[in-house]
Amino acid sequence: MSSPRRTGRDMSQLLSDFGHELPTTAAALPPMKQPRLFRHVPPSGARTPGRGWAPTAAPVVSYRMTSDQAAAFWPFIAGPGLPPTGAQMGVDVLSGAAFHFDPIGLVLRDDIPVTNSNIICMGKPGTGKSATTKAFCLRMTDFGYRNLILGDPKDEYERLCHFFGVEPFVLGPGMSARINPLGLGPLGEGWADLTVQEAKSRAAVVFSRWLTLVRALVGSQRIGNDRVPFGPSEEAVVKTALHDLTGYAAGNSTLVETTIPRLWHHLNEPTDALIEQCRYASRQHFFDETRLLRDALSQLVSGALAGLFDDHTNIDVDWNAPIQSLSLSRLNPLGDEAIGIALVCLNSWGRGMREIAAPGDLRVVVRDEMWKAMRLGVEAVKSLDEDLRLSRGVAGRGGDIQWANAHKPSDMLTVGDQGSQAANIARDLMHLADIKILHGQKPGVARELDAMLGLGQQATDVMTGWAMQRKGRALWLVGERTYKVETRLHPAEETLTWTNEALEGAA
User: Fold this and answer.
1) Which end of the chain is more exposed for a tag (fewer CB within 10 A), N or C?
2) For the chain, percent helix, then strand, then coil, each to nearest 5?
3) pTM here?
4) In angstroms, rounded to a whole number, what is the distance separating the alpha carbons of residues 384 and 220?
5) pLDDT tens across 240-272, in order?
């Protein structure tokens, strides 16, 4: 039987004889249980105070919808953006994408709920409303658009005109510029080449525009607290007089341009034929029934605006220029009513210039301080209403982007008593514009907009909070879509838009 095998001493034993101990390996600890990141909670909730326990599970229903449809439940979800065409205005902060804007292009698309290119821009002074307007005008010139500023009460667009090398026309007492609101404009050309039916149709357009103007001008005059009435009898008298003055009643092949002083003189010294055609029993009967009409026209001839709109147009407008502006700053000492009357006259003149626009002649028509014209009475409101309804062009020709600026909805709704015809038409103007740009507002004004447009609490908070924190921020309502947009300007544009002059009189 063999003896057991002897083994040698290992290194640790040898070192221990000399008083050295090698470190030993610690015993492995048992594996620790990993903590749970999530705890299972039953459908009824955790049975712990403050944990939302409920005796029954809440019913949960899932719906499948697009991001466009989801905006009905949460209006500020990043839905589909606008097509990347037109002026790049800034950033859509909900999606982070660039925000492009082309109103007429939107009208031509079937997938976007926009039927007209009218724009109403509102905001508290100093929130960037004027800058957004001018930035849009500037950038749309790259897409073939030209700009027409129908009355600039504060010379806000003077810098922009000078940038394009254009000098604004100045209207005011002692100035040489004259504009005839009864001018024929392009409609006065080419009558000899028209058929009888075409001539009648064109004449109907001309006389309709003139009647709208005269109705607004007469209705702007007051008798105490009431406006001068302009009913069917007054309309018949004015229409008959215009037929006589233009030669239409005599069957002339070409209409002769007339003026407001000539119209007043023809009514103040009527012919026997005019009295007979208007079916008045006598000359005295005519004078008695038309006294208010004649006195109202007399104020326009010899009143504060004498010498501005009482003669033939003597300015030569270059319609191929990128921009044209009519300055009204010299009328500010005359008061808001005088400026309002001037705006009504310019609106009529501007319509005359655009009634036969060439195909593809696209314009951005800016209407600043429009509330001053609307406060002239219901007829002035009707005149503006007609202008906005022609934004799609006449007979498929031309096409305008009507851009109207105001401070707040009360500027428009105070044109008459609550529930009056003027107030109702003014309210409809807000709905007539499919595009609304709402800059920062105080809470009270934001609530007015909410009540008028049904914006909701989130939109109201945007106007009173986010939009007030920086100039250029606004809530854009494009049809039924909502966008939070911040206008971005190139440093070179800031001198044309973010000027002190613009902010002091932001309109």
Assistant:
1) N
2) 40, 15, 45
3) 0.77
4) 14
5) 999 999 998 888 878 889 999 999 999 999 999
